[in-house]
């Protein structure tokens, strides 16, 4: 049992708030949202090792089952949380798990990114994107990032080697060939991304499955496509924690809301263009 200090806000949370239960058809109601949690261990279950009362932990828990992180207390599987990095407070830590695990899996497990390779990361100022830029740099890759011009300085500060203002430039005509594309946008961006990928490159799509017509075109060009659903992974989160400890990864928190104002946080997230992540503070009371 963890006393929740903070819960991260993710796209899945507000999709469910809009009634998007088609993503989780077998889960009974009522449903407590939230999968990203950071807090302090209150009770350790019988036979559970590795943690003790008072430990600060964080993680993405139970997905695709209800995570129940939007609460004062949450029963979490011990195998899905890890020690909170000392350099992060609970608010910052809650911003990291789902987005960080998604970024890492996209870059390492799906794209197989290697040191010295070029990767194009779309929406690089967003929740997954800003962590993907930092993780890719930590892996030794050359990063090309797209975002709005107002985020140029911010994205460059994350380590991007090249920046493309998607409102002013067509990335497919201004970017030299890359080994991998991490797409967090969807729509026509996937098809357009094929034009900048090298033969045997890979397009990793995060918001949705790659459409059949895009897959077919990619195959004709000798390009691989990948899509996936993120899962809890304590081993990977531990690797990301080490990057935090080394100063190579740091989550950005755009706004913090009291837990009781989760709906307001969802509205901000749904509106788009959040820099980094939104987080709920479970230790404060709404005014």
Automatic annotation (TrEMBL):
Keywords: Oxidoreductase. It comes from the Bacteria. CDD domains: MDR_like_2. One of its GO terms (molecular function) is oxidoreductase activity. SMART domains: PKS_ER. Residues 8-280 form the Enoyl reductase (ER) domain. PANTHER family: ALCOHOL DEHYDROGENASE RELATED (PTHR11695), RETICULON-4-INTERACTING PROTEIN 1, MITOCHONDRIAL (PTHR11695:SF294). This is NADPH:quinone reductase.
């Amino acid at each position: 049992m963890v006393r929740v200090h903070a819960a991260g806000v993710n796209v899945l949370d507000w999709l469910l708030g809009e009634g998007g239960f088609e993503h989780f058809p077998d889960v009974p109601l009522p449903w407590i949202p939230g999968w990203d949690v950071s807090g302090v261990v209150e009770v350790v279950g019988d036979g559970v090792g590795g943690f003790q009362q008072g430990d600060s932990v964080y993680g993405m828990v139970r997905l695709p089952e209800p995570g129940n992180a939007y609460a004062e207390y949450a029963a979490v599987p011990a195998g899905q949380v890890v020690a909170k990095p000392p350099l992060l407070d609970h608010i910052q830590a809650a911003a990291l798990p789902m987005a960080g695990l998604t970024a890492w899996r996209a870059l390492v497990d799906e794209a197989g990114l290697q040191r010295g390779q070029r990767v194009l990361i779309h929406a690089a100022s967003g929740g997954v994107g800003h962590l993907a830029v930092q993780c890719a740099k930590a892996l030794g890759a050359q990063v090309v990032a797209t975002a709005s011009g107002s985020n140029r300085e911010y994205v460059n500060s994350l380590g991007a080697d090249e920046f493309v203002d998607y409102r002013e430039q067509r990335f497919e005509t201004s970017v030299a060939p890359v080994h991998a594309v991490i797409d967090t946008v969807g729509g026509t961006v996937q098809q357009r991304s094929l034009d900048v990928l090298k033969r045997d490159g890979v397009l990793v799509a995060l918001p949705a499955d790659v459409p059949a017509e895009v897959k077919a075109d990619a195959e004709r060009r000798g390009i691989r496509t990948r899509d996936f659903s993120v899962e809890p992974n304590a081993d990977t989160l531990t690797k990301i924690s080490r990057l935090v400890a080394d100063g190579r990864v740091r989550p950005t928190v755009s706004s913090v809301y009291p837990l009781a104002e989760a709906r307001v946080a969802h509205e901000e997230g749904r509106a788009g263009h959040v820099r980094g992540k939104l987080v709920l503070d479970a230790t404060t009371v709404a005014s």
